[in-house]
Amino acid sequence: MPKKIKPNMQSAELGNFLSIVASERGLSLRAMAAGADISHTYLSEIISGKKIPEAGVCNALADFLEIPRLKFYRLAGWLDSEFVERLEEITNQDPELKEVLNSIISADDKNRAQLIELIRAGVRK
Questions:
Q1: Which domains does the chain have, with CATH numbers?
Q2: 55 and 78 in contact (C-beta within 8 Å)?
Q3: Closest alpha carbon to 29 in 53, 54, 47, 55
Q4: Structure letter (DSSP) for residue 63
């Protein structure tokens, strides 16, 4: 069974970022949590660095705050900064690839897994 990948500990960076965004937009903790459909207690734990958000929570917060998901994944520690920068550079040069990547990122868990398997199958050929 494959090992479960844990994100890097960058929770302080994410917490600071969320605090700044909330302040700039005049959002209370409860309003931000409600907008992302998570509990305000859980959001408070993310902001304080006690919890690292799951991918689905990252998606919900990124979407509600209208922040690119890749940036949010980097802030949460799920992706390395250099990887995100390189990926953004590549996808900015290839709009078709960017569309595929955004489809994968936006898919629900079941469909995301199926898309990744299709890509893997295509790469193996």
A1: 11-76 (1.10.260.40), 81-124 (no CATH)
A2: yes
A3: 47
A4: H
Kindly report the pTM of this predicted structure: 0.69
Cβ–Cβ < 8 Å for 12, 49? yes
pLDDT tens column, 39-50:
999 999 999 988
User: What are the phi and psi torsion angles at 109 (to 5°)?
Assistant: -55, -45
Name the 3-class secondary structure at 44: helix
Give the amino acid at 1.
Answer: M
Cβ neighbours, 10 Å, residue 81: 11
With residues binned 3-state (H G I as helix, E B as strand, rest as coil), the percentages for the chain, rounded to 5, are 75, 0, 25
Q: Give the model confidence (pLDDT) of 66-78 as tens digits.
A: 988 888 888 888 8
